[in-house]
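Example 329.
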Amino acid sequence: MATSTSIEILDLRHFPAAMLRPVLESEGEIWKQRLHWDYRTSARLLMQYLDNHMLPGYAAVLAEQVIGYVFCVYEETKAVIGDAFAMCGQPDSSPASSAHEIEEELLKHLLELLLNSPQVDRIESQLLVHPSGSHTALFRKAGFEIYRRLFMVQRLEGLWSPPLVDLPVELEIRPWRDEDLAPTARLISEAYRGHPDSLINDQYRSVHGSMRFLNNIVRYAGCGTFSAPVSHVIVHRSSREFVAVVLGSRVSPESGHITQVCVHPEYRRRGLARMMLSVAAFCFMRQGATEISLTVTEANAQAIDLYQAEGYSCSHSFDAAVWQRNRVG
Ligand SMILES: CC(C)(COP(=O)(O)OP(=O)(O)OC[C@H]1O[C@@H](n2cnc3c(N)ncnc32)[C@H](O)[C@@H]1OP(=O)(O)O)[C@@H](O)C(=O)NCCC(=O)NCCS
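Predicted structure in complex with coenzyme A:
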């Protein structure tokens, strides 16, 4: 499968983790510069999968060196494209072998594989580190819908006083506990009913899917290292149902990341989300973080209003891409 630049695109499962180390290190630099994110935790996880020869995807190989990769994971009949990245500045780089072109070649191979796999009904992708527009044309051409997403950042200077917690008597707020997964999954599937984010991530559409999303974030470091002291729930005192939740992870020594904030539809516009964000911010600050980031879909205007009012501003944007197979009959 040689390309015109004599770069070969080969099955990722043939390559041990050590061969991808330079690519992952080079990618880590970009995550650090662009998102203030320490990519090493994610890279370590990837390297375990690579060494087990379990990661479906492709490697771009030039002169026996891996210079790029793309991978996906399968969740039942869905494939999630986890990342696509190629190193800049190969020794003999020419305009025809730019990192962007190599990434496109890798993505083309993976899309061809997935679109021709009859058991794959849905493909989702959020290439967080790549600026919006980078690979949009390729995804659109393959029949994907594109949703622009924003990476927003709040600086934590000056947030020294504990936030004011003023709740109706029937509600209580407390930090996250291990047993909170199931009630939070119920809350997420209620909160995201008919929401733009459930078009992008179909896990939000069911309790089972929300449970998978939460397990990935809380137990498997799928989005930084989960922080139980930062994460909080608001619970109804008598029914014990969850009314609101904020989840936070550490993505580097200086940065915290809000991986989830949602409020039950019956309790909206009472300041609960604002309160949860201030509590999380205060806890991150106590841990020594100097900034917090989060991602939000551009179509989610209410959440963007909330974040801007809290002092977040957009520092980067990226695309979510979704493809759904149309079954006839
Ligand atoms: C976004 C969400 C968390 C807001 O929760 P909330 O508790 O209703 O928000 P708050 O009452 O704290 O609102 C704080 C501010 O956010 C903005 N805001 C929140 N909801 C809004 C709405 N429906 N319309 C316009 N502005 C809104 C306002 O600026 C509001 O301040 P104000 O009430 O003084 O005008 C909630 O609507 C929700 O759970 N949505 C579904 C899940 C979601 O989108 N999560 C964010 C994913 S990135």
